[in-house]
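Q: Could you write out the predicted structure for this multi-component system? I'm mainly interested in how the pieces pack against one another.
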Amino acid sequence: MAHTRQLCRQLVLRSSVLITFLLWATAISGHEMTPAYPVVKPSHVADVVKVEMSLFNSREEIEYYQIELFDLNWMNIPFSTTYRIIKIGYKERKSFNVYIRKRDMDEAVYLCTTSKVRKTNQSRTLVSSKICSRLDGEPA
Amino acid sequence: MKYSIAILSFIAFPALANVEITGSVEAKCVIQTTKAGVYGNPIASKLSTTPADGGVLPIIRYDVSIADSYTANITHPTAFSSSPTLSDTLAWTGSTSVTQTSVAGMSAYEAAKILVNNTTIFDLTLAGSTWFSTASSAVYGSAKALPGGTYTAVVQATCIAK
């Protein structure tokens, strides 16, 4: 009898831990972009290179992310991609390619995605998240 | 019959081959909004996210998988992204602080933070999770009452690969 009680207690404890973890996991919302140091590859177009990126959206309130490319001083660098503002559903992962001219690669440093926040009807602060990868390689 | 079974079991042997699971750990940063901020209105001319003023501080969590790969740059607002029409200037103040860490050594981030204009820069030298809160306050010019309506401001949370 005592053994059964102990088993029941353990089961309840484990279930509550699992439920707590699931609640924590579902409550969190995040923005993730990889890789941090992307590999620059040749593209099918002459004198243009490509970078393959992956974006994961677990921010329920966010649907759109903007892709930007900057130099070391945060000045915009021209690039091409399918959509500069991409729509990503909640808990969805999307891969995208960024095409950059070879002659711009000496200056291109930061490849960033920024969440686009929606207008609300509450007096509040919104959080816009921005993640930047580096095209000039890992620090030595 | 015995020979057939022996031959069949020999043929079937490759089915027991091990299946590999491969994985890699790479530098990765995840920005998570743990709590959205809310402006309180303690006096007619002021909006503030400070709990003492009836507001709620926005909490942002940064998860980094590899140490010393990213910096966290958090910019507190200096303008409303949407508000009723305002005829006077606003005096903005703000700050960002470390509120919680997953590794004890991360508590040093607070002392080492750098403030550039309205952006606070934290060097994420350890792998793990760090929670930041951003306080924001706006006071309407000459202590005038703020017009009724909805006020929204944006906190920019950036994670930059080093």
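A: Regarding packing and overall arrangement: The first strand of chain B starts at residue 29 and ends at 35.
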